[in-house]
Amino acid sequence: MPLPEEDLFSISEIYHENTKDRKRVAPIMSKIPQQQWIWYRAFKKYPHKPRVTMEVPAPSASPGLEEVIQRRRTIREFSGESLSLEELARLLYFSNGITAKVRSGDIELPLRASPSAGALYPIELYPVVFSVTGLEEGVYHYNVEDHVLEFLRPGDYREALYEASHRQEMLLLSSVLIVMTAIFGRTKIKYGERGYRYVLLDAGHLAQNLYLESTAQGLGCATIGGFLDDEVNGLLGVDGLLESAVYMAVIGKVLGNSRGTAPQG
Ligand SMILES: Cc1cc2nc3c(=O)[nH]c(=O)nc-3n(C[C@H](O)[C@H](O)[C@H](O)COP(=O)(O)O)c2cc1C
Fold first, then answer.
1. Mean pLDDT score of the chain, rounded to an integer?
2. Can you give the residue ranges of every domain in the chain?
3. Considering 13, 44, 67, 215, which has the largest number of Cβ atoms within 10 A of its Cβ?
4. DSSP H helix total and E strand total for the chain
5. Are 252 and 79 in contact (CB under 8 A)?
6. Sign of CA pseudo-dihedral 15, 21, 26, 30
7. pLDDT higher than 90, residue 120
8. Nearest CA owner, ligand 1 atom 7
9. pTM, rounded to two decimals
10. What is the DSSP pairing of strand 176-183 with strand 243-253?
């Protein structure tokens, strides 16, 4: 029986097939020497925007990791109470913060809380603040190297993001929405087209850390894969090509003793 037309032209199958590493063909690796990748590892910064400094958080002892993994759920019921700046700082630091430095030749290489293919760290975090004590509402960028927030754009974007995420109601009482964008070139410089797979895997690792750190702090977290890309990119002011939103998470105080719900829709 012939396959339906859409199955013959599946972009994902063509992409996956064409980005397989094969034994007889050397995987695409950049000819640029490792020393020069440093340029692709550059930290994104907005030097002319106002900064909000944050404490670098120390790890807390309890609860234990396995308990956190067992308790982790997608929480969609929030109370609407504010998060503290310290809670937000912990979420950012324990998902994308610098946790170690190692020497690689004559380079000192910063390593982060989440793993990343080639330690190239393509993911940037943009917290859109709805209700965090001491912070004005609006769009921020997490400057990883300096562990500060850069204030990009004031405003209440809850309604716009509610619309842009197909009216997912959990957004309405959450305290912050964190957009994960990817700067694809950082990873593609080394891995070529296959690097696109790695970028999305990196985002998944980072999102899991957001889930686990939220759980450890007694906060609720729900990741969002379904959103209107152009609207979200437009809000952040990224071009959607070299840098584009790939995943989002809403975080807030949990309503009552909500322990998670079935997916919406
Ligand atoms: C890639 C991805 C995208 C997701 N997108 C959404 C989403 O748009 N809305 C939502 O409510 N949950 C979303 N989720 C959460 C899943 O629905 C949830 O993980 C699943 O129902 C299992 O529940 P649990 O996380 O509580 O174990 C997403 C999860 C992943 C991994």
1. 92
2. 48-253
3. 215
4. 8, 9
5. yes
6. positive
7. yes
8. 224
9. 0.93
10. antiparallel
Question: What are the tens digits of pLDDT across the range 218-234?
Answer: 999 999 999 999 999 99
User: For ligand 1, atom 17, which residue shows the shortest CA distance?
Assistant: 263
* Residues 89/101, Cβ–Cβ less than 8 Å: no
Lookup result for tokens 């998902």: 95
DSSP letter at 132 equals: B
Instruction: Name residue 240's amino acid.
Output: G
For domain 48-253, give the CATH number.
Answer: 3.40.109.10
- pLDDT over 70 percentage in the chain: 89
Q: Please tell me what DSSP assigns to residue 169.
A: G
Q: Whose CA is nearest to atom 6 of ligand 1?
A: 224
Residue indicated by tokens 């309503």? 255
- Under the banding of pLDDT at 50, 70 and 90, the label for residue 32 is low
Does the CB atom of residue 164 touch ligand 1 within 6 A? no
Residue in the block written with tokens 């609860």: 63
Contacts of 90 (CB under 8 A, 6+ apart): 57, 213, 217
Tell me the residue type at 160. Answer: A
Residue 40's closest CA among 143, 118, 102?
A: 118
